Protein backbone atom coordinates (compact mmCIF):
# COMPACT_ATOMS: atom_id res chain seq x y z
CA UNK A 1 0.00 0.00 0.00
CA UNK A 2 1.16 3.54 -0.77
CA UNK A 3 0.40 7.00 0.67
CA UNK A 4 -2.07 7.74 -2.12
CA UNK A 5 -4.24 4.76 -1.14
CA UNK A 6 -4.89 6.42 2.22
CA UNK A 7 -5.32 9.97 0.92
CA UNK A 8 -7.66 8.89 -1.89
CA UNK A 9 -10.01 7.24 0.63
CA UNK A 10 -9.88 10.30 2.90
CA UNK A 11 -10.68 12.60 -0.03
CA UNK A 12 -13.54 10.41 -1.19
CA UNK A 13 -15.00 10.83 2.30
CA UNK A 14 -14.08 14.52 2.68
CA UNK A 15 -13.11 16.22 -0.60
CA UNK A 16 -10.40 18.85 -0.20
CA UNK A 17 -12.65 21.25 -2.13
CA UNK A 18 -14.67 21.56 1.09
CA UNK A 19 -11.78 23.51 2.65
CA UNK A 20 -11.87 27.28 3.09
CA UNK A 21 -9.92 29.35 0.57
CA UNK A 22 -7.36 30.51 3.17
CA UNK A 23 -6.47 26.98 4.23
CA UNK A 24 -3.61 24.65 3.29
CA UNK A 25 -4.86 21.07 3.04
CA UNK A 26 -3.81 17.84 1.37
CA UNK A 27 -0.36 16.27 1.10
CA UNK A 28 2.02 18.90 2.52
CA UNK A 29 5.22 16.84 2.77
CA UNK A 30 6.32 13.65 1.04
CA UNK A 31 5.69 11.47 -2.00
CA UNK A 32 2.17 10.20 -2.73
CA UNK A 33 3.68 7.09 -4.30
CA UNK A 34 5.78 6.15 -1.26
CA UNK A 35 5.21 2.66 0.16
CA UNK A 36 3.54 2.80 3.57
CA UNK A 37 4.82 1.27 6.78
CA UNK A 38 2.21 2.77 9.10
CA UNK A 39 -0.07 5.77 9.72
CA UNK A 40 -0.06 8.03 12.78
CA UNK A 41 -3.12 10.26 13.34
CA UNK A 42 -2.73 13.52 15.26
CA UNK A 43 -4.19 16.99 15.73
CA UNK A 44 -0.87 18.78 15.17
CA UNK A 45 2.38 17.70 13.53
CA UNK A 46 5.01 18.92 16.00
CA UNK A 47 8.54 17.58 16.51
CA UNK A 48 7.43 15.24 19.29
CA UNK A 49 4.76 13.84 16.96
CA UNK A 50 7.34 13.20 14.23
CA UNK A 51 9.50 11.47 16.89
CA UNK A 52 6.49 9.33 17.82
CA UNK A 53 5.96 8.43 14.16
CA UNK A 54 9.61 7.36 13.88
CA UNK A 55 9.33 5.25 17.05
CA UNK A 56 6.16 3.55 15.79
CA UNK A 57 7.54 3.00 12.26
CA UNK A 58 4.83 5.20 10.72
CA UNK A 59 5.88 7.07 7.58
CA UNK A 60 2.58 8.91 7.07
CA UNK A 61 1.18 11.42 9.56
CA UNK A 62 -2.48 12.31 9.04
CA UNK A 63 -2.82 15.62 10.85
CA UNK A 64 -5.91 17.72 11.38
CA UNK A 65 -4.05 21.04 11.52
CA UNK A 66 -1.57 21.84 8.72
CA UNK A 67 1.98 22.31 10.00
CA UNK A 68 2.64 24.48 6.93
CA UNK A 69 0.01 27.22 6.96
CA UNK A 70 1.71 30.34 5.64
CA UNK A 71 4.48 30.31 3.05
CA UNK A 72 7.84 28.77 3.95
CA UNK A 73 10.68 30.86 2.51
CA UNK A 74 13.49 28.94 4.17
CA UNK A 75 14.20 25.72 6.08
CA UNK A 76 16.87 26.51 8.64
CA UNK A 77 15.27 25.02 11.75
CA UNK A 78 14.74 28.41 13.37
CA UNK A 79 11.02 27.81 14.08
CA UNK A 80 8.97 24.90 15.34
CA UNK A 81 7.38 24.63 11.89
CA UNK A 82 10.73 24.42 10.09
CA UNK A 83 12.11 21.90 12.62
CA UNK A 84 9.07 19.64 12.26
CA UNK A 85 9.20 19.73 8.46
CA UNK A 86 12.96 19.14 8.34
CA UNK A 87 12.69 16.14 10.68
CA UNK A 88 9.84 14.66 8.61
CA UNK A 89 11.79 15.06 5.36
CA UNK A 90 14.98 13.61 6.84
CA UNK A 91 13.07 10.53 7.98
CA UNK A 92 10.97 10.08 4.81
CA UNK A 93 7.73 10.82 6.62
CA UNK A 94 4.80 12.23 4.64
CA UNK A 95 2.39 14.72 6.24
CA UNK A 96 -1.24 15.09 5.17
CA UNK A 97 -3.72 17.64 6.56
CA UNK A 98 -7.53 17.92 6.35
CA UNK A 99 -8.34 20.94 8.58
CA UNK A 100 -11.29 23.03 7.34
CA UNK A 101 -12.31 20.38 4.81
CA UNK A 102 -13.14 18.18 7.81
CA UNK A 103 -14.64 21.21 9.63
CA UNK A 104 -17.10 21.64 6.76
CA UNK A 105 -17.99 17.96 6.40
CA UNK A 106 -21.43 16.89 7.63
CA UNK A 107 -19.94 13.97 9.60
CA UNK A 108 -16.71 15.77 10.51
CA UNK A 109 -15.42 17.78 13.48
CA UNK A 110 -18.70 19.28 14.64
CA UNK A 111 -20.66 16.05 14.19
CA UNK A 112 -18.14 14.42 16.54
CA UNK A 113 -18.72 17.12 19.18
CA UNK A 114 -22.47 16.58 18.85
CA UNK A 115 -21.95 12.84 19.27
CA UNK A 116 -19.92 13.36 22.46
CA UNK A 117 -22.57 15.72 23.87
CA UNK A 118 -25.50 13.53 22.75
CA UNK A 119 -26.97 16.31 20.63
CA UNK A 120 -29.60 14.99 18.21
CA UNK A 121 -31.60 16.26 15.21
CA UNK A 122 -28.50 18.06 13.99
CA UNK A 123 -28.07 20.27 10.95
CA UNK A 124 -25.35 22.53 9.56
CA UNK A 125 -25.19 25.92 11.30
CA UNK A 126 -23.68 27.89 8.38
CA UNK A 127 -24.26 26.04 5.10
CA UNK A 128 -21.59 26.60 2.46
CA UNK A 129 -22.41 28.41 -0.78
CA UNK A 130 -21.10 27.83 -4.33
CA UNK A 131 -20.65 24.09 -3.74
CA UNK A 132 -23.53 23.01 -5.99
CA UNK A 133 -23.29 22.98 -9.79
CA UNK A 134 -25.84 22.32 -12.51
CA UNK A 135 -25.24 20.39 -15.70
CA UNK A 136 -27.41 21.01 -18.75
CA UNK A 137 -26.97 18.71 -21.74
CA UNK A 138 -28.90 17.55 -24.83
CA UNK A 139 -29.31 13.92 -25.87
CA UNK A 140 -31.54 11.95 -28.28
CA UNK A 141 -34.81 11.39 -26.45
CA UNK A 142 -34.67 7.59 -26.62
CA UNK A 143 -31.25 7.55 -24.96
CA UNK A 144 -31.92 10.10 -22.23
CA UNK A 145 -32.81 7.60 -19.48
CA UNK A 146 -29.59 5.64 -20.01
CA UNK A 147 -27.55 8.84 -19.76
CA UNK A 148 -29.38 9.98 -16.63
CA UNK A 149 -28.71 6.64 -14.91
CA UNK A 150 -24.99 7.03 -15.67
CA UNK A 151 -24.99 10.57 -14.27
CA UNK A 152 -26.83 9.42 -11.13
CA UNK A 153 -24.23 6.68 -10.63
CA UNK A 154 -21.48 9.33 -10.86
CA UNK A 155 -22.99 11.27 -7.94
CA UNK A 156 -25.27 13.73 -9.74
CA UNK A 157 -28.91 14.32 -8.86
CA UNK A 158 -28.67 14.32 -5.06
CA UNK A 159 -30.62 17.09 -3.33
CA UNK A 160 -30.72 16.89 0.46
CA UNK A 161 -32.38 13.60 1.42
CA UNK A 162 -33.40 12.86 -2.20
CA UNK A 163 -31.47 11.16 -4.99
CA UNK A 164 -31.90 10.62 -8.76
CA UNK A 165 -33.25 14.17 -9.13
CA UNK A 166 -33.36 15.75 -12.60
CA UNK A 167 -35.56 17.77 -14.92
CA UNK A 168 -35.99 17.09 -18.63
CA UNK A 169 -37.63 18.99 -21.47
CA UNK A 170 -38.24 17.48 -24.91
CA UNK A 171 -37.57 19.60 -27.99
CA UNK A 172 -35.94 19.59 -31.39
CA UNK A 173 -32.20 20.04 -31.81
CA UNK A 174 -30.44 20.84 -35.08
CA UNK A 175 -26.86 20.44 -36.31
CA UNK A 176 -24.90 19.91 -39.51
CA UNK A 177 -21.86 17.61 -39.48
CA UNK A 178 -18.70 18.93 -41.18
CA UNK A 179 -16.46 16.97 -43.55
CA UNK A 180 -14.17 15.75 -40.77
CA UNK A 181 -17.00 14.69 -38.48
CA UNK A 182 -18.09 11.14 -37.68
CA UNK A 183 -21.73 11.68 -36.73
CA UNK A 184 -23.84 9.09 -34.94
CA UNK A 185 -26.92 10.94 -36.16
CA UNK A 186 -27.46 12.73 -39.48
CA UNK A 187 -25.46 12.96 -42.69
CA UNK A 188 -22.34 15.03 -43.38
CA UNK A 189 -23.17 18.28 -45.11
CA UNK A 190 -26.89 18.26 -44.32
CA UNK A 191 -28.71 19.97 -41.48
CA UNK A 192 -30.14 17.30 -39.22
CA UNK A 193 -33.11 17.70 -36.86
CA UNK A 194 -33.31 15.40 -33.86
CA UNK A 195 -35.93 14.92 -31.13
CA UNK A 196 -33.83 15.55 -28.02
CA UNK A 197 -34.26 15.73 -24.28
CA UNK A 198 -32.66 18.63 -22.46
CA UNK A 199 -31.43 17.19 -19.15
CA UNK A 200 -30.85 19.46 -16.14
CA UNK A 201 -29.15 17.87 -13.14
CA UNK A 202 -27.30 19.23 -10.10
CA UNK A 203 -24.21 17.77 -8.46
CA UNK A 204 -21.65 18.65 -5.75
CA UNK A 205 -18.77 20.72 -7.10
CA UNK A 206 -16.36 18.08 -5.77
CA UNK A 207 -17.92 15.51 -8.14
CA UNK A 208 -17.45 17.51 -11.34
CA UNK A 209 -14.68 15.29 -12.71
CA UNK A 210 -16.71 12.09 -12.19
CA UNK A 211 -19.87 13.62 -13.66
CA UNK A 212 -18.11 14.87 -16.80
CA UNK A 213 -16.39 11.51 -17.25
CA UNK A 214 -19.78 9.76 -17.10
CA UNK A 215 -21.27 12.32 -19.49
CA UNK A 216 -18.63 11.85 -22.17
CA UNK A 217 -18.51 8.07 -21.78
CA UNK A 218 -22.26 7.54 -22.06
CA UNK A 219 -23.36 10.31 -24.42
CA UNK A 220 -23.97 9.02 -27.97
CA UNK A 221 -22.88 12.17 -29.81
CA UNK A 222 -19.34 12.71 -31.12
CA UNK A 223 -19.48 16.31 -29.86
CA UNK A 224 -21.31 16.68 -26.57
CA UNK A 225 -23.16 19.96 -26.07
CA UNK A 226 -23.28 20.83 -22.37
CA UNK A 227 -23.20 23.73 -19.93
CA UNK A 228 -22.12 23.85 -16.27
CA UNK A 229 -23.24 26.60 -13.90
CA UNK A 230 -22.22 27.26 -10.30
CA UNK A 231 -25.34 27.89 -8.22
CA UNK A 232 -25.79 30.27 -5.28
CA UNK A 233 -27.91 27.69 -3.45
CA UNK A 234 -26.63 26.78 0.00
CA UNK A 235 -25.63 23.18 0.59
CA UNK A 236 -27.25 21.73 3.71
CA UNK A 237 -24.67 18.92 3.83
CA UNK A 238 -21.53 21.10 3.78
CA UNK A 239 -20.68 23.99 6.08
CA UNK A 240 -19.36 25.28 9.38
CA UNK A 241 -20.78 24.39 12.77
CA UNK A 242 -23.82 22.36 13.78
CA UNK A 243 -26.96 22.92 15.76
CA UNK A 244 -29.23 20.40 17.40
CA UNK A 245 -31.08 19.52 20.58
CA UNK A 246 -30.49 17.77 23.86
CA UNK A 247 -32.94 15.01 24.71
CA UNK A 248 -34.26 17.17 27.54
CA UNK A 249 -33.63 20.69 28.78
CA UNK A 250 -31.00 21.32 31.48
CA UNK A 251 -30.42 24.17 33.90
CA UNK A 252 -27.52 26.34 32.74
CA UNK A 253 -25.14 25.38 35.56
CA UNK A 254 -26.03 21.71 35.17
CA UNK A 255 -25.30 21.95 31.45
CA UNK A 256 -21.93 23.61 32.05
CA UNK A 257 -21.01 20.80 34.45
CA UNK A 258 -22.17 18.28 31.84
CA UNK A 259 -20.10 20.07 29.20
CA UNK A 260 -16.98 20.01 31.41
CA UNK A 261 -17.41 16.31 32.08
CA UNK A 262 -18.12 15.21 28.50
CA UNK A 263 -15.39 17.34 26.90
CA UNK A 264 -12.86 16.77 29.72
CA UNK A 265 -12.42 20.49 30.43
CA UNK A 266 -10.45 22.28 33.11
CA UNK A 267 -12.55 25.42 32.79
CA UNK A 268 -15.14 27.19 30.64
CA UNK A 269 -15.21 30.89 29.79
CA UNK A 270 -18.81 31.96 29.25
CA UNK A 271 -21.12 34.94 28.91
CA UNK A 272 -23.69 35.89 31.56
CA UNK A 273 -26.09 33.13 32.58
CA UNK A 274 -29.73 33.99 31.91
CA UNK A 275 -31.67 31.66 34.16
CA UNK A 276 -33.13 29.77 31.20
CA UNK A 277 -32.95 26.08 30.40
CA UNK A 278 -30.52 24.79 27.78
CA UNK A 279 -32.10 22.62 25.09
CA UNK A 280 -30.95 23.90 21.69
CA UNK A 281 -27.16 23.71 21.31
CA UNK A 282 -24.90 25.14 18.59
CA UNK A 283 -21.28 24.01 18.29
CA UNK A 284 -18.29 25.01 16.20
CA UNK A 285 -14.91 23.42 16.85
CA UNK A 286 -11.90 25.73 16.76
CA UNK A 287 -12.12 29.51 16.34
CA UNK A 288 -15.81 30.25 15.99
CA UNK A 289 -16.45 33.93 16.76
CA UNK A 290 -17.64 34.46 13.18
CA UNK A 291 -20.62 32.14 13.85
CA UNK A 292 -22.03 33.96 16.91
CA UNK A 293 -24.68 35.78 14.88
CA UNK A 294 -25.65 32.56 13.09
CA UNK A 295 -26.07 30.79 16.43
CA UNK A 296 -28.27 33.61 17.70
CA UNK A 297 -30.34 33.61 14.50
CA UNK A 298 -30.86 29.85 14.92
CA UNK A 299 -32.34 30.46 18.39
CA UNK A 300 -29.62 28.47 20.14
CA UNK A 301 -29.72 28.45 23.93
CA UNK A 302 -25.94 28.03 24.03
CA UNK A 303 -23.11 28.33 21.50
CA UNK A 304 -19.99 26.26 22.19
CA UNK A 305 -16.76 27.30 20.47
CA UNK A 306 -13.30 28.75 21.28
CA UNK A 307 -10.78 31.58 20.88
CA UNK A 308 -13.21 34.36 21.76
CA UNK A 309 -12.02 37.88 22.55
CA UNK A 310 -13.29 39.99 25.43
CA UNK A 311 -15.83 42.06 23.47
CA UNK A 312 -17.16 39.05 21.57
CA UNK A 313 -18.87 37.77 24.71
CA UNK A 314 -21.05 40.92 24.61
CA UNK A 315 -22.48 39.64 21.32
CA UNK A 316 -24.61 37.21 23.29
CA UNK A 317 -26.86 40.26 23.87
CA UNK A 318 -28.43 38.46 26.87
CA UNK A 319 -30.28 36.22 24.40
CA UNK A 320 -28.22 33.05 24.78
CA UNK A 321 -25.05 31.77 26.44
CA UNK A 322 -21.70 31.73 24.67
CA UNK A 323 -19.23 29.14 26.01
CA UNK A 324 -15.52 29.17 25.11
CA UNK A 325 -14.08 25.74 25.92
CA UNK A 326 -10.63 26.14 24.36
CA UNK A 327 -9.34 25.46 20.85
CA UNK A 328 -7.58 22.16 21.54
CA UNK A 329 -10.38 20.99 23.79
CA UNK A 330 -13.05 21.62 21.15
CA UNK A 331 -11.16 19.57 18.55
CA UNK A 332 -9.53 16.92 20.73
CA UNK A 333 -11.80 14.07 19.57
CA UNK A 334 -11.16 14.76 15.89
CA UNK A 335 -8.21 12.38 15.80
CA UNK A 336 -10.45 9.63 17.22
CA UNK A 337 -12.90 10.32 14.39
CA UNK A 338 -10.10 9.93 11.83
CA UNK A 339 -8.74 6.74 13.39
CA UNK A 340 -12.19 5.17 13.53
CA UNK A 341 -12.79 5.99 9.86
CA UNK A 342 -9.42 4.68 8.67
CA UNK A 343 -9.68 1.55 10.81
CA UNK A 344 -13.02 0.73 9.19
CA UNK A 345 -11.52 1.23 5.71
CA UNK A 346 -8.18 -0.47 6.42
CA UNK A 347 -8.84 -2.94 9.27
CA UNK A 348 -5.62 -4.89 8.76
CA UNK A 349 -3.18 -1.99 8.42
CA UNK A 350 -0.99 -0.36 11.09
CA UNK A 351 -2.94 2.70 12.30
CA UNK A 352 -1.97 4.57 15.47
CA UNK A 353 -3.66 7.29 17.51
CA UNK A 354 -1.00 9.79 18.57
CA UNK A 355 -0.26 9.88 22.29
CA UNK A 356 1.73 13.12 22.02
CA UNK A 357 0.37 16.19 23.82
CA UNK A 358 0.17 19.07 21.36
CA UNK A 359 -1.98 21.57 23.28
CA UNK A 360 0.15 24.73 23.61
CA UNK A 361 -2.09 26.18 26.34
CA UNK A 362 -1.63 25.18 29.98
CA UNK A 363 -3.87 26.01 32.93
CA UNK A 364 -2.65 26.97 36.42
UniProtKB/TrEMBL annotation:
<dbReference type="GO" id="GO:0046872">
    <property type="term" value="F:metal ion binding"/>
</dbReference>
<protein>
    <recommendedName>
        <fullName>GTP cyclohydrolase 1 type 2 homolog</fullName>
    </recommendedName>
</protein>
<feature type="binding site">
    <location>
        <position position="103"/>
    </location>
    <ligand>
        <name>a divalent metal cation</name>
    </ligand>
</feature>
<dbReference type="InterPro" id="IPR036069">
    <property type="entry name" value="DUF34/NIF3_sf"/>
</dbReference>
<dbReference type="InterPro" id="IPR002678">
    <property type="entry name" value="DUF34/NIF3"/>
</dbReference>
<dbReference type="Pfam" id="PF01784">
    <property type="entry name" value="DUF34_NIF3"/>
</dbReference>
<comment type="subunit">
    <text>Homohexamer.</text>
</comment>
<feature type="binding site">
    <location>
        <position position="65"/>
    </location>
    <ligand>
        <name>a divalent metal cation</name>
    </ligand>
</feature>
<feature type="binding site">
    <location>
        <position position="327"/>
    </location>
    <ligand>
        <name>a divalent metal cation</name>
    </ligand>
</feature>
<dbReference type="InterPro" id="IPR015867">
    <property type="entry name" value="N-reg_PII/ATP_PRibTrfase_C"/>
</dbReference>
<keyword id="KW-0479">Metal-binding</keyword>
<dbReference type="InterPro" id="IPR017221">
    <property type="entry name" value="DUF34/NIF3_bac"/>
</dbReference>
<comment type="similarity">
    <text>Belongs to the GTP cyclohydrolase I type 2/NIF3 family.</text>
</comment>
<dbReference type="GO" id="GO:0005737">
    <property type="term" value="C:cytoplasm"/>
</dbReference>
<feature type="binding site">
    <location>
        <position position="331"/>
    </location>
    <ligand>
        <name>a divalent metal cation</name>
    </ligand>
</feature>
Amino acid sequence: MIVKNITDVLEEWVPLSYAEDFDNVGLLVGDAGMKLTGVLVTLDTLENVVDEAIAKNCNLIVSFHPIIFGGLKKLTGSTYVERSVIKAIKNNIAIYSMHTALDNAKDGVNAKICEILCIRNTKILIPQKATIKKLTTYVPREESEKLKEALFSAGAGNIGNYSNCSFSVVGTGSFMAGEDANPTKGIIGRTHFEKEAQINITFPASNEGKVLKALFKNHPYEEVAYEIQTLDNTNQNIGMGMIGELERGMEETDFLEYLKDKMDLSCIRHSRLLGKKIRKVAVLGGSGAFAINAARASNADVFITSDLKYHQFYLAEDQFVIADIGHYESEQFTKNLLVDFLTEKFPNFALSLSESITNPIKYF
